[in-house]
Amino acid sequence: MSDFTSNFWSVFVTTLTLVGIIACGILLWMAGRKKVMATAENTTGHVWDEDLVEMNNPLPRWWVWLFVITIIFGLGYLAAYPGLGTFTGKLNWTQKGEYEAEMAKAKTEIEPLYARFASMKPEDVAVDPQAHAIGERLFMNNCAQCHGSDARGSKGFPNLADADWLHGGTPEKIRETLEKGRIGNMPPMAAAVGSPEDVRNLSHYVLSLSGSPHDSLRASLGKTKFVACAACHGNDGKGNQALGAPNLTDDIWLHGWGEAAITAMINNGKVNQMPAQADKLTEAQIGVLASYVWGLSNKPAAAR
């Protein structure tokens, strides 16, 4: 209701709500006072299905009081809680406040559970059985939707179980990614590369960097066009983790490989986003989760 730009809608909602409740009360009162002319058999004269007769009996008293109690409860609820336009209610209750209170309570309850992990090195947390179980559950609840339950990702979502990292795979970098999120932006480069044929030639040169199947003639023609990409991916095509620019020589393709996929990337660009988790998870939870993710691609080290 706080999003209203004028007071009209607040008054409209308040009026509509109160009129509806009052109308129910009036309808109940009128129904109780109305008398129906009955026959000697105490019926209204209405018959359905040949033998179903409507009797002229008043509503049961308990039923009437149930309606009355419902109306009183509705008015009391609207006085205590938000529901009448911009009126916040006498209890000043809000969904946001309820959520924040529950989250604060949950953080207080789980704090002792994470306390012993705070003083441990990330490498030690990764091999701790309890921390591993907690990290796995955190991953399933917050990361598996994009990266998969096995953390191997899919097209457009990085594989976290290999040694290929866009921004670095140290525990510190992984924690930074979890806390702040990442936005990857590959701008459209067709205008900087040249004609559509130049784009195709460049695509084959990019394929040649990783030894992927390619047209060697086109690759040789496209080599000079790679200067448009070198600012981010480096002259050797090995990428730049400071920028999040992928390594083009390792035969790992986040958005698909082949001439068509690379040509589309050069022509259209791509924007990817890893959402920040700092507002969702506590600092201790992010620490355990970062160690768990690090352990996925460092299994021999984690085992030691």
UniProtKB/TrEMBL annotation:
Heme c 1 binds at C143, C146, H147, M274. Gene3D superfamilies: 6.10.280.130, Cytochrome c-like domain (1.10.760.10). It is found in: Cell inner membrane. Binds 2 heme C groups per subunit. Pathway: Energy metabolism; oxidative phosphorylation. The keyword Chaperone does not apply. Its cofactor is heme c. Heme c 2 binds at M186, C229, C232, H233. GO terms for molecular function: electron transfer activity; heme binding; iron ion binding; oxidoreductase activity. C-type cytochrome. Part of the cbb3-type cytochrome c oxidase complex. Component of the cbb3-type cytochrome c oxidase. This is Cbb3-type cytochrome c oxidase subunit.
